[in-house]
Design a protein that fits this description.
Blueprint: H1 3-6, H2 16-23, E1 28-33, H3 39-53, E2 58-63, H4 66-80, E3 86-90, E4 95-98, E5 103-108, E6 122-126, H5 135-143, E7 156-161, H6 168-173, E8 181-186, H7 199-207, H8 213-218, H9 234-237, E9 250-256, E10 263-270, E11 276-284, H10 289-302, E12 311-314, H11 319-325, E13 330-333, H12 338-349, E14 358-360, H13 365-371, E15 376-380, E16 387-393, H14 399-411, E17 419-421, E18 427-429
Parallel strand pairs: 1-7, 1-8, 2-5, 2-6, 6-7, 9-12, 11-14, 12-13
Antiparallel strand pairs: 3-4, 4-5, 9-10, 10-11, 15-16, 17-18
Helix pairs in contact: 2-3, 3-4, 12-14, 13-14
């Protein structure tokens, strides 16, 4: 760590990979690492270092949700700053002011447009792969625009994340970084010295014989084998909304209740053409029923529907929650027949002459990521040691997938295909 910040933080222990990231002078930086590889820690150290190197500067700290920022990013940042050096901390506005006039502004990026009214010198996006990309990156660049009298200063944007399949960070930075784009790649083993004894071994046991070992422990981009929806691609299926939500013929919300896992909701609209577009998502660990209701009210308003007309297809495992929602919305237990539902989703994702019947908005990063991570479970034969795919899925990356299936099954037979007449006169589903 550079000298200006040393006297203002506790002793900082950096792995060689973390140190390389903190000292990298590239304008656009990515720390791509495994779980517990010290990504957020390195991002926080870099943030503090630059705020003291360049007094009076402003930095935006963004993330996919307030809970993630509060429980991970900001907690790590505050742990690294001597409390005597914090002049002001306003949790309600997300502002932290340091004793030299520099400040951090904390913002959630579930909607990147929240940054449009804010200008800063630097931007750090934690868990950037979970944010809407490329919008969050592009708006972050535009916001990192303020100048500084120090001639050595250059605006910078950096992201820290564990990859989520072949996610949008690969599209932006590439594998090793383009000119002006720096990439630091770290595995969990690079941070062993800073981890509790036995943690790595327990995670190895958890992820052994799963397709997530390389992603979670090695921090690698992974094109997973055994995908349930292998036809899904960002290029083909991720599209902007073709029409306003209120112009859709039908609107349905699918809900998968969470607990330890996130509560996931998807907002689906059937277009006048018969196609289906996912307009939005709600994806939040620890979400309360009040949080769910507030989001449904917001979506009903966008759809110009009275709340009691908004159809909400819910996982039937929470009958009390469904009954509570049904007092305000048209909430009911969804059809949970998995095999039929997966076949139906597959049908809608299949490329047609005029494109797939189902598309997803770029504002739904968790849904997009899950399409690339939703895989058939694997099993090791006890005698031959051969690992093979089963007919069951790995469901800890399936919250949005379940919600999508519930919503689409509710649309069911009402989803149609556009009929296209070819030059020969042959009519086909397009």
């Amino acid at each position: 760590m550079r000298a200006p910040a040393i006297d203002r933080v506790p002793e900082v222990r950096l792995s060689p990979k973390q140190r390389a990231f903190v000292l990298d002078e590239s304008r656009f930086l990515l720390y791509r690492g495994a779980i517990r590889s010290g990504k957020t820690y390195a991002g926080a150290v870099r943030s503090i270092d630059r705020r003291y190197r360049y007094p009076g500067t402003t930095q935006i700290i963004g993330g996919p949700s307030w809970s993630q920022l509060r429980d991970g990013t900001i907690r790590t940042l505050l742990r690294l700053i001597n409390p005597r050096c914090i002049a002001k901390h306003n949790e309600s506005t997300g502002q932290i002011v340091l004793d030299n006039g520099s400040e951090f502004l904390v913002r959630t990026l579930d909607d990147p447009n929240v940054l449009r009214a804010v200008e800063a010198h630097d931007v750090w996006i934690d868990e950037i792969a979970m944010c809407p990309l490329p919008d969050a990156f592009d708006i972050g660049i535009a916001r990192a625009s303020l100048s500084h009298p120090d001639p050595t200063f250059r605006n910078s944007l950096w992201g820290t994340t564990t990859p989520r399949g072949m996610d949008g960070t690969l599209d932006i930075w590439g594998m090793e970084g383009k000119p002006g784009y720096g990439v630091t790649h770290s595995t969990i083993y690079d941070n062993r010295a800073n981890l509790p004894e036995g943690l790595i071994e327990s995670l190895e046991e958890k992820y052994r014989d799963t397709p997530f070992f390389e992603q979670e422990l090695l921090g690698m981009y992974t094109a997973f084998e055994g995908l349930v929806y292998p036809m899904f691609s960002r290029q083909t299926h991720v599209k902007s909304a073709p029409c306003a939500l209120h112009d859709c013929d039908e609107i349905v919300v699918g809900v998968d209740w969470g607990g330890v896992t996130p509560t996931a909701m998807v907002l689906l609209g059937k277009l006048p053409s018969g196609r289906v577009h996912q307009y939005a998502e709600f994806y939040r660990p620890g979400a309360t029923l009040g949080d769910v209701g507030a989001q449904l009210h917001e979506w009903a308003s966008l759809a110009r529907l009275r709340p009691e007309r908004l159809r909400v297809a819910c996982d039937g495992s929470e009958p009390v929650a469904i009954a509570t929602l049904a007092q305000t919305f048209r909430a009911f237990a969804a059809n949970k027949e998995r095999e039929t539902g997966r076949k139906y989703v597959t049908q809608l994702l299949q490329p047609q002459l005029a494109g797939p019947t189902l598309t997803v908005d770029s504002a739904c990063p968790n849904t997009i990521a899950e399409y690339g991570q939703y895989v058939w479970a694997r099993k090791r034969d006890g005698e031959t040691k051969v690992v093979y795919l089963t007919d069951k899925t790995i469901d800890h990356h399936a919250d949005a997938m379940d919600a999508t299936r519930y919503g689409l099954m509710e649309l069911g037979q009402r989803v149609s295909y556009e009929v296209i007449t070819l030059p020969s006169g042959l009519q086909v589903a397009g």
